[in-house]
Amino acid sequence: MVAKVAAPSPFSIVNIRLFIVFRFFFNARFYYPVFTILFLDFGLTIEQFALLNTVWAITIFCAEVPSGALADILGRKYLIVATSLFMVLEMSLLAFVPLGNSSIIFWAFLANRVLSGLAEAMASGADEAIAYDSLSADGNPDDWPKVLSLQMRLQSIGTIITMTVGALVYDPSMVNRLLAWLGTSLTVGQQTTMRFPIYLTLILAIFATIAAFRMEEKQKIENEETGFRTLAALKMTWNAGVWIARTPFALAIILFGMCYDHILRMIVTMTSQYFRQIHLPEASFGIIGSAIALLGLITPKIAEYMIEKNSPTGNMLWISGISLVGLFGLTGFFPYWGLLPMSLLFIAMMFISFFTSHYLNRITKSHQRATVLSFKGMAFNLAYGLIGVFFALLIGHQRTIGRAIHPAWSEQAIENLAFERAIGWFPWYTILCFGLTFIYCLYQFRGSVDHKQTNHPG
After folding, report:
1. CB neighbours of 23 closer than 8 A, spacing ≥ 6?
2. Residue 408: its H or E element
3. 141: alpha, beta or left? (left if phi > 0; alpha if psi -120 to 50)
4. What does the alpha-carbon distance between residue 303 and residue 19 come to, in Å, rounded to a whole number?
5. Which of 195, 263, 277, 403 has its CA 20 to 30 A from that of 453?
6. DSSP state of 4
7. Are 33 and 289 in contact (CB under 8 A)?
């Protein structure tokens, strides 16, 4: 009897290591803790900030699926290299744009948002696809949860470092203290230090580009005319969409992930405003972000265990429970203690990312994997864009009601009240979305057991 040869460690595969390195450098952004005030300190207005981020979301939505199809047709490495180069360009625009001319600054930030959206869209399916295909060819695809677990934990370490360092180097008083400690009389102002997180992120973009160029594409692309490739990409997109629509398990993964992702992401983008409402000093935001990122060192291992022990339906119910507890907890706006429900929402977001990646990669064939993953990204970003519009309308409505009820209140007090009342809608909206999604998927799963299996067949 011949002994079965054990598969090599997934981390012995070059593309797996490069995938982790690429994700680390691509997602570690030093400017995240000061994201909103960075735009304002460059001279932009709140309205321009909102417009630019709308452009970012629209760019991702429009480019998500076509980029995934092109990755499957032209090769995943081409898209990953383009992603890293776009990151270099987007950071270079902000690093070197001259100050003083508001029009030039706005157009530089607009180009930055478009390039950032294209980079996000191109990376979302191609990097996972090339890594998973390499694991299938040279290792054991059942090891994918281990790869995701390590990648997410290292990314959390990167977040801790960048959140802390980014907030510190942005503050001119902290930089000047460091310069004085080093024995120099040189001092810097806000217009100088506000670029420091950008410079550091630009360095990481260069490292991400090096990792992208070193990846190896195993899939051989036939040398066809551009027109044939375009038609093939369109056909690939159509076929992947049809496959998702006709595969209840794939559709359920995307729908449930979309249900919770857009709600939780909307909350997470407003953490600074929420922290102000629970009386946390602004100087603590970077430290709090780093502390929350520590959860990323533990959560992926828990998710890995849940994949082995629970069915997809069971894991979905866990996400639902954690999300609702966190959302209802937020509505109390408890001073300081409000950090606990916010932490639950970050945990739920990590579970969603982990589970959707695992289950979709598990059931999707190699030739359309990047396209299917891009459909997921497109659905998530479409929902996120829509809830952003609805939330803005809700805030406006609550502000109008607040002015009518409390005419003597200050504008800031009215704004705070509108924010609190708008947050109060989120748990009920979540229950509605979950209920509709659950009923639809229950109908689709008639006679199927895919959603009940602990280890879904590939």
Report:
1. 127, 151, 155
2. none
3. alpha
4. 20
5. 263
6. P
7. yes
H helices within 406-425, ranges in order? Answer: 411-423
Measured over the CA atoms of residue 445, residue 446, residue 448 and residue 449, the dihedral's sign is positive
Specify the range with the lowest mean pLDDT, choosing from 29-38, 206-215, 221-230.
221-230
Neighbours of 282 (CB within 10 A): 11
For 173-179, what is the mean pLDDT? 84
For 215-258, what is each residue's pLDDT tens digit?
887 655 554 554 555 566 667 777 778 888 888 888 999 999 99
Q: Tell me the residue length of the chain.
A: 458
Query: Which amino acid appears at position 146 of this protein?
Result: K
**Whole-angstrom distance, CA of residue 354 vs CA of residue 401:** 41
Q: Which residues contact 205 (CB under 8 A, 6 or more apart)?
A: 25, 26, 84, 87, 88, 91
Q: Which helix (H) or strand (E) holds 312?
A: helix 312-330
Give pLDDT tens digits for 390-434. 887 787 788 889 888 888 888 778 878 888 898 999 999 999 999
- pLDDT recorded at residue 182: 82
The structure tokens 């670029």 sit at 195
What 3-state DSSP class applies to 75? Answer: coil
Q: What percent of the chain has pLDDT over 70?
A: 87
Token pair recorded at residue 122? 């191109």
List all residues 6 or more positions away from 446 whose beta carbon is below 8 Å from its beta carbon: none
Residue 69: pLDDT band with limits 50, 70, 90: low
Domains of the chain by range and CATH?
9-216 (1.20.1250.20), 227-458 (1.20.1250.20)
Quote the tokens at residue 286. Answer: 């970077």
Give CA–CA dist 202/93, Å, rounded: 10
Nearest to 323 by CA among 400, 399, 252, 259: 259
């090096």: which residue's tokens?
210
DSSP state string for 12-23: GSHHHHHHHHHH
The whole-angstrom separation of Cα 286 and Cα 162 is: 9
Q: In this predicted structure, what is the pLDDT of residue 88?
A: 95
Give the integer Cα–Cα distance in Å for 275 and 283.
11
371 touches 237 (CB < 8 A): yes
Q: Which of 62, 74, 70, 165 is nearest to 113 (CA)?
A: 62
155: amino acid identity, one letter = Q
Amino acid at 358: H
Which tokens hold the place of 417?
Answer: 């009240």
C-alpha 287: how far from its chain's center? 20
CA distance 21 to 154: 9
- Say whether 442 sits in a helix, a strand or coil: helix
